[in-house]
Design a protein that fits this description.
two-stranded antiparallel ribbon, 69% helix, elongated, single chain, mainly alpha
Length: 173
């Protein structure tokens, strides 16, 4: 899971760099030669944005770096925070898993249809990015499930010296 979450992070970063180069090339060519790159808006919207948004989620979940509202939890002890995280983890797993399943079902139907987006001069196939969405959420759900199992084990061992937030390097399978 560590390798997989790191891989998805790097793929998301690569998509971000590709988007930056693509948009920069479009702007430079549009201004200097009056020759915009065809389909930039569609490629950015339907390809790069999906990859940039969803691929890094598994890494964020693994490192427990997702946005957390600490207003109610900032004064909890590490042990109480671990209990709360363990209580809420099945909801995260269920939510992410449901999104992954629904996303995969939708990706399958759009793959069969060969879903495309009109990009003025060509048709951009967008169905592959539906699979990226489903896969990214499935991997994130697996990471959350692993964290839940790990946290349950830590809870059963008692409150002595518990660190409530293991980071990415602590993932072991």
């Amino acid at each position: 899971l560590t390798t997989l979450s790191n891989l998805t992070l790097w793929l998301g970063a690569l998509a971000l760099v590709a988007m930056m180069v693509h948009v920069t090339a479009d702007v430079v060519l549009k201004i200097t030669l009056n020759w915009p790159v065809a389909g930039t808006l569609e490629i950015v919207s339907y390809v790069y944005m999906v990859a940039c948004t969803f691929l890094p989620l598994a890494h964020l979940q693994a490192s427990r770096s997702l946005i957390v509202v600490e207003f109610f939890t900032q004064n909890l002890s590490k042990w109480s925070l671990l209990k709360l995280e363990t209580l809420m983890a099945p909801l995260s797993v269920a939510y992410l898993g449901t999104l992954a399943i629904v996303g995969a079902t939708r990706a399958y139907s759009k793959t069969v249809l060969g879903e495309t987006q009109d990009a003025t001069y060509f048709e951009l196939p967008v169905w592959p990015m539906r699979w990226v969405f489903a896969a990214a959420l499935a991997i994130t759900a697996l990471v959350a499930l692993h964290q839940f199992i790990t946290d349950c084990r830590r809870l059963s061992s008692g409150p002595g010296g518990t660190d409530a937030s293991p980071k990415l390097g602590d993932l072991r399978i």
